[in-house]
Write a structure and sequence with these properties.
The structure is a homodimer. With about 350 residues, chain A is an alpha+beta fold. Chain A is built from eleven helices and 14 strands.
Chain lengths: ~350, ~350
Amino acid sequence: MDGRFPAPLLVGFAARVLEAAGARRSDALITARVLVEADLRGIDSHGVARLPVYARRLKGGLINPRARLRGLKDSGSVLWLDAQNGLGPPAAARAMGRCLERAATEGLAMAAVRNSNHFGIAGYYAMMALDRGMIGVAMSNASPLMAPWGGRTRMLGTNPLAVAIPGGSGPPVVMDMATSQAARGKLEVARRLGRPLPPGWALGPDGRPTTDPAEGLAGLLLPMGAHKGYCLAVVIEALCGALTGGAMGPEVGELTAFDRPQGVGHAFIAIDPQAFVGLESLGRRMDEYGRKLKADRPAEGVERIYLPGEIEHEERLRRVKHGVPLPPAVRRELAALGAEVGVEVGFLAEG
Amino acid sequence: MDGRFPAPLLVGFAARVLEAAGARRSDALITARVLVEADLRGIDSHGVARLPVYARRLKGGLINPRARLRGLKDSGSVLWLDAQNGLGPPAAARAMGRCLERAATEGLAMAAVRNSNHFGIAGYYAMMALDRGMIGVAMSNASPLMAPWGGRTRMLGTNPLAVAIPGGSGPPVVMDMATSQAARGKLEVARRLGRPLPPGWALGPDGRPTTDPAEGLAGLLLPMGAHKGYCLAVVIEALCGALTGGAMGPEVGELTAFDRPQGVGHAFIAIDPQAFVGLESLGRRMDEYGRKLKADRPAEGVERIYLPGEIEHEERLRRVKHGVPLPPAVRRELAALGAEVGVEVGFLAEG
């Protein structure tokens, strides 16, 4: 049985663990919030289940706990930043925060960060724009897990792309996707649960299609929409790697190899609707269009039509109310981690 | 046998036809160049084969030949524009041109246009950035041809997205793709050539999978990468439609229905690498990364690994040298069109 845990409890626990592993308090708290937000949205692959990996990288000196986000160039609406090998979530959240401030005066801004680490769900940073009534875009490169289209060797990350667009009275549209047909984290979940993969997600280490999650994780993920996802992943490598002077493709360190820093890069864009039609009109049109899309007659075997981000939005409402479910394997790992770094874990036995 | 025609001859012919159909000379010339650039790049679906449709929309008063690109708001790095129902290519090329000028001073700029028409290949406008040493992004909404994921009714365009990134001594990376698994134009080509579609491209009007291009064109195109392409298409509707105050989804007029103006919207972004790592470094890193990707050992049955845009780049070199091939059906249509509007078409018999 999955235990269920209130999100604030998990945020507190994750922050204490990260602090005990060496992170600055403010960095630990931001990272904890980003992880638990993934759990709340039902993206279990990117939630507190990743805490042991982050903590291990901190403790092993692969992430610099004292890093500060350093400005390299500031052109008004453009910020070029270096995360100095700090934790990904605080670097990304602060970069997006500065980007939003600039967009408020300039109408549009972009911030790109090099020398960072895995930043969790891209959607978190895109959604930061919503509170300010803006459109947010977030992307990152990542550990290489895809081959060039037609190739055999890991040279591209599953490079996520997220866009958040304010709604009016309705919920926002939030696209948050890997450029692989499935996120690496989904293979990790399948492995944890002992479930086979749908066909079309992965190739084994021999370059042949597989439905075994362990083989897929040892092999290659397939890009979304075949060659199209490959092109999109290359573009994200260019914006997050080449443009920032950071690592690209095979230069990016493997998240779970614990052999070297990752050198991940991120890029963020914020657009103020006031520079166009205005926030109120944008929200009204998005609501209207969303209602039309959802009112379409579902195809055979389909129950409901969802807007981008709607499934996650509804899951969030449920999990805020009923708690975040954690499977026994994750609870055991977190309990071991807490015990290791000296953080109270009694609550994990009770969920 | 396909006849082959030098690109400048086709540009001249297309421009004269568009002018005879009512377009201003400068608008006709830009449109002709955009169409023939598609032909040069091997994207035959978006080339002069579309000339009869553009001319018919002009002559039928569905496109306003006297339209000027009107500024609605100007926030320095952001331009909100209205194309006043003019031809898509000149509106788009001028919007991107202004966007590039602004990016040269601001480091970053965005232009979005409402009330426009079909603009040809998105890649043309993204690639305009390359001559200025910038990164270009272009997107557009389009006639609805996709259903919401799980639905049955046309509510989303095949909304193209293009990104062009300068190389160093090597060619640029150019991604130019529809958010459907296949562009509508590819179904038109298949219908013209009497070839079946690969599975996974389309649903017939009954909502069931089809490999018949005519059925697919009468039915629905499937999004790239399943639900992921749906999300991307919704985001593009938001940026090109809701944000510009223009038409969205089913409000966009059907290109080939000739019943009403289209009301298409476009969005463009230009990024100056000088605000980041600099053009020289960007180009050098892109070249290096491109060489790595291409040096990967091809999978079974694959001859070569290509970079995004490389196939089109090589085809362009061949067609500049040997001419643009036009199948007999297209030549007949163009000859009839030329005769109708009083433009000399003798050359079409000779190719």
